[in-house]
Structure formats: structure tokens, C-alpha cells
Amino acid sequence: MNPRTLLLAIAALTTAGLTAFLVQGWMEHQRSQMARAPEKAKPAGNHVLVAKKNIPRGRFIKPDELLWQAWPEGRLSPAYATKGERKKTDFVGSVVRNSLVAGQPVTDEAVVKAGERGFLAAVLTPGMRAVSVKVSAVSAISGLVFPGDRVDLILTGKFKIAGASKGERNLFRAAETVLTNVRILALDQRTDDQKGNDKAKRVPKTATFELTPKQVQMVSVARNLGNLSLSLRSLAKDDENGTKPDEKEDKVARRGKTVTRDTEVSRFLTMGANKKKAKITIMRGGKTSVATVAKEGPDPTRLRKAIRDALKDTIRSGDRGNDNDSGGLSASEADRGDEN
């Protein structure tokens, strides 16, 4: 064999062996890289709408109380609301029929939606009652109150005072806080608090409240005594009792404590009241004097002056009758005592 041909054959075999070796090494390296690479995440399953926190029975569902949660494919129920098929807004504003716990799927059977039969009964707290009263644009705060708000009920009217003597005023106008912290269930036939639709812009003609059976009777009497007005309460801490409206001890309406008469509003109504006089008898030792004051609503300044003058007359009479009476007061001492 030609030496040149032999050398070429040896070179070719060497090149082929080296190439095979390099290819095998590269393949081993690729296999090791693939073994170390993390597995790709499996596609996520369906997402189900669940309660983000515990929601008690009769509560209006709010957007921040719901969330989408991944749910195993094998445990998926046709009743569940899945992402892509349903929306959160389908359940926002509905009332929870039975209490929901955090993580529990929200279904159509678990809630009652506005307009459905039994919606108002689901909103009512157990043991409470619903009562409706007529309201106007003024008494309903120009339509700026909504279902779920809390208000005070103010009764305004004319009231006759029994037992007034002849010539005395016996008819007064007054306002009284009948109930405080009253929960509004509905305005007209609207039970949701959405403010963006056209119906929400209408001023309501009736308001439905949540009250105890006794308070329902009180409101039934109050609406026949005069006009009922609504006074909107703040959602922030109330200085009156130091609690928030949504706290346990403040969920039920309470009896009001304040009354305002017309004489507290208008000074004109008190003018001329001092024409009717009453007598105050002041006795000091064996001396007696009489002071006349207004019988109805006496002016405190006039009352003090009348008593002071009568006391001075009594002291002067006592001083003239018995100059040695050390137990008495002088007129100047009476003046100083009145000034103090």
C-alpha cells in the first residue's frame, strides 16, 4: 500500500473518532442540563369565587369581601361561580341567606338578590321587624340617605299640655328624638345602595326601618302625632357612646333622650311671660316680706333682684326693731351675698 494512502486513512479514522467523542460529550452535557432544569409549572385549574372573610347572615355582600381562589378540578361543583363564566358584580349587593365562612364558595343558593322573593326577610336581623313611614325631600335629607345607612328619627309637631290653668299657654311646638341609630332597610322598593343608576337619584317617598317590636309600635304612634324627619348619622366613632354603628352593642336602635321646645328656639315666644306674677314669701325671725316674680319662665336676673330687695327690706325692719340683734345681716352684707 502506498504510504501516502495509508497516512490519509489513518488521519480520516482519527478525525472520525475525535468527532464521535466530541459529539458524545456534547450530548451528555445536554442531558445533564435537562435533568437540572426545573419542570414547567402545570397550568392552573379553575378559579372559584369564595368568601374572603366570614360574612354573617343578613349582610350585604361588598366587593372587598370576595376573591377568586384556585380550585382542584376534581372537586369542582356545577353550582360554583367560576372565573370567566361569572363576575364578582353578580353577587355584590346580594344578601347572605346563611352565614358564609372564609374560603367557602359563593353560590346562587347561598344569597338572595335584590328583587327576589324573601330578600327583605333575609336582610332583617332575627327578632327584628320592618316598618315603613312616609318621607319627603326635606325629611329624607334630599335623597342623600341610602339603604344600609343609620339615622335618628325626629318627631316634630304641636303638643297640648294638660293641666294648664286659665290664661296660661297650653299649646307648644316641639321636636323630640324618638329613636337613634335606626338602620334603613329600603327606600321605596329599592334595597340596594348603588348610587349610579337613575332610580338612586329619585327622592324617596317611603323609608323602611329595622326596629324591635316595641319600637315599631312607637313609630306607628309617632307618625300620627306629627312629622317624622331623618337625621343621618356618621359612620365614624360616635362621641355619644364611644362606639361605631357596626359594633355589636350599637346594632339596635335606642330611645332618644333630647326634646326641644319652641321657647328654646324663639325669644319672641317668651316675651310677655313675665307679666304673670307669682309671690315669694321671705320670713326672717318675726318679720315677713313678699317678693313678686314671673310665674312662667322667670328671668333669673329679675328673680335675684326681687329676692335681694325683699331681703333688704326685712333686714332694715329687723335692724330698726332690734339694733342689738347680732344674728342678723346688714343690708350691705345682703348686697355682698347677692353679688357672690
Explain what you see:
With 340 residues, the protein is α+β, with helices and mostly antiparallel strands. It folds into three domains: 74 residues, Alpha-Beta Complex (Type Iii Antifreeze Protein Isoform Hplc 12), CATH 3.90.1210; 140 residues, no CATH class; 67 residues. Helices cover 26% and strands 24% of the residues. The protein is built from six helices and 13 strands. Strands 5, 6, 7, 8, 9, 10 and 11 form a seven-stranded antiparallel beta sheet that branches. Strands 1-2 form a two-stranded antiparallel ribbon. Strands 3-4 form a two-stranded antiparallel ribbon. Helix 5 runs antiparallel to helix 6.
Q: What descriptors fit this protein?
A:
26% helix, 13 strands, alpha+beta, two-stranded antiparallel ribbon, disordered C terminus, Type Iii Antifreeze Protein Isoform Hplc 12, 6 helices, 340 residues
